[in-house]
Predict the 3D structure of the following.
Amino acid sequence: MPLIPMRTMLDHAAENNYGVGAFNVNNMEQIQAIMTAATETNSPVIVQASRGARSYSDDNYLRHLMLAAAELNPKIPIAMHQDHGNSPETCFSAIDQGFTSVMMDGSLQADGKTPSSYDYNVDVTRQVVEKAHALGVTVEAEIGCLGGIEDGHGAGFSGEEAAEHLTDPEEAERFVNDTNCDALAVAIGTSHGAYKFTKKPTDDVLKMELIKDIHRRLPNTHLVMHGSSSVPKELIDIINEFGGEMPATYGVPVEAIQQGIKHGVRKINVDTDNRLAITGAIRRVFTESPGKFDPRDYMKPARAAMVEVVKARMIAFGQAEQADKVPVRTLDDLKKFYLV
Ligand code: G3H
Ligand code: 13P
Ligand code: ZN
C-alpha cells in the first residue's frame, strides 16, 4: 500500500474511538522496529521525522527507507509525518519528499524557540493548509506552547511560564476556524524529553480537563498530545544498571493518555521512550560484552527493545487490530475531500 494521508487514519480512529501513536525515527532500525511492531499487532502507524531527523538521516535516505517500509508491509497503512515543522518552507520541502502529513508548528517562531503571536501562527498555518490540502496532504498545527508546569522541568518552559502558555480552549476554537487544520496539538502540561515530572503527575500539572473542554468545542478536530512518553521506571533502571546516570523521573501515564483518547486525542507523540529502550539495550551489550565491536551486536537488541515499547503503546492506544480496517485512500482522494 502507498503511504496514506494521516487524515484518513485519524478519521478512522475517531470513528472507532482509538488513538494512533506517532513514533519518531532517525534511522533504518527505528523504522524497522515500528514496522515489526505494527505487523505483529496489525496496527496502522504514523512514522514521524523531526527537522533534526531529516538532517541526520538525509531526506533521500529517509524517503527510500519509508518507501521500503511501505513495499515490505503492504497490509499496514502508514502515514509519514513531518514533526514540528518550523516554517512553511520546511513543510513544503517535506511534501516534496513524499511526506503525507506535516505539522506546521506556528506556536513558535521560525527559530523553533520563541513563542509567536496568534496572528503569526494563523498566517503560517493557513499558508501550509492551503498548499497541503490542494495536494491531499494532512496538516497538524499547534496552539499554546509545550512545557512542564513543575519548576525546573520541561524542555522549554517550566513553572509559571509554562502555565501561561497552556492552550486556551476558546483560542483553540478560534484558531481551528481561522486555519482549517486537520489536527491540533495542545499544550496541557506535557513537555518533550525524559524529565517531565518529579512525581507521578496529578491534575494540577497534567491538565487533562483542558482536553475535555477543547474536544467539547472542537468535536471534529483530531487532538494531538506531544511529549507523551511514559518514561517507565524499568527503562530508566536498565540504563542505570549498565552505567547510566539518570535521576528518577516521571512521564505521562498511559492511563492519562487513554483518558485523553476518550475525549478526542487521536495522535500521541512518542520518541523518548524508544530512545530510552534503545540506549538501555546498547548499554547492556557494552557492559556485558565489552569485547564486542560489530554494530549488529548492539543494534539488533536495540531494535528489539524498541519493538517491545512500540507494541505496548499500540495495544494501549487501541490501534492494534485496526490496520486492515482503515480505508485505503490516496492523496488524490483527499484532494477531492478538501475541495468539498
Ligand atoms: O519533538 C521532539 C522529538 O522528540 C524529536 O526530537 O528534534 O531531537 O529529533 P529531535
Ligand atoms: P516525548 O519526548 O515525550 O517522547 O515526545 C515526543 C514528541 O512530542 C515529538 O513531537
Ligand atoms: Zn512534539
